[in-house]
């Protein structure tokens, strides 16, 4: 599931499904027509790709997720850090903050996450 890479169009589609699930295929087709100006066939093509990728499932004309949005993007983030920074979160953080300045609020939120971290929760 997590190995699936979404492009921009698929991400927008996935967000639409996650925001509205469970939903029937007819509801999904209507939402995609309204939001993306897609034809039915386009909706079904993108849905099929994401079902084959393990992100969603289609049963009895009802679309549901096999992985939540949060879990999908969390796993993608972990994979990115693993592949790009040899799994080092400090190396990622150093690279990220080299170009982007953090606000005091962001720093406080990060400190709070670190302070509340308990390795036994994993």
Q: What is the element layout, followed by pairings?
A:
Blueprint: H1 8-20, E1 23-24, H2 25-36, H3 40-52, E2 56-59, E3 62-65, H4 69-85, H5 89-99, H6 104-116
Antiparallel strand pairs: 1-3, 2-3
Task: Produce a short descriptive summary.
The protein is built from six helices and three strands; from the N terminus they run αβααββααα.
List keywords for this structure.
122 residues, mainly alpha, Arc Repressor Mutant, subunit A, 6 helices, 3 strands
Share in β-strands: 5-15%
Order of helices and strands: HEHHEEHHH
CATH architecture: Orthogonal Bundle
**CATH top level label:** Mainly Alpha
- Average residue-wise pLDDT: 91
What's the β-strand tally?
3
Q: What structural class do helix, strand and pairing data support?
A: mainly alpha
The separation of the N and C termini measures 20 Å
Helix content: 55-70%
Number of domains: 1
**Radius of gyration computed on alpha carbons:** 18 Å
Task: Catalogue the unreliable spans.
Answer: none
What characterizes the major β-sheet? 3 strands, antiparallel
Named CATH topology = Arc Repressor Mutant, subunit A
| Count of DSSP H/I helices | 6
In which order are the strands of the major sheet placed?
1-3-2
Write out the CATH superfamily name.
Winged helix-like DNA-binding domain superfamily/Winged helix DNA-binding domain
Shape: elongated
């Amino acid at each position: 599931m997590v190995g699936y890479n979404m492009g921009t169009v698929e991400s927008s589609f996935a967000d639409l499904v996650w925001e509205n699930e469970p939903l029937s295929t007819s509801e999904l087709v209507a939402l995609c027509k309204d939001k993306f100006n897609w034809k039915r066939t386009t909706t079904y093509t993108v849905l099929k790709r994401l079902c084959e990728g393990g992100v969603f499932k289609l049963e009895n004309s009802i679309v549901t997720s096999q992985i939540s949005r949060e879990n999908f993007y969390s796993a993608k983030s972990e994979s990115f850090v693993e592949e790009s920074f040899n799994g080092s979160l400090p190396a990622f953080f150093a690279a990220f903050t080299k170009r982007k300045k953090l606000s005091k609020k962001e720093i406080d939120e990060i400190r709070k996450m670190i302070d509340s971290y308990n390795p036994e929760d994993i």
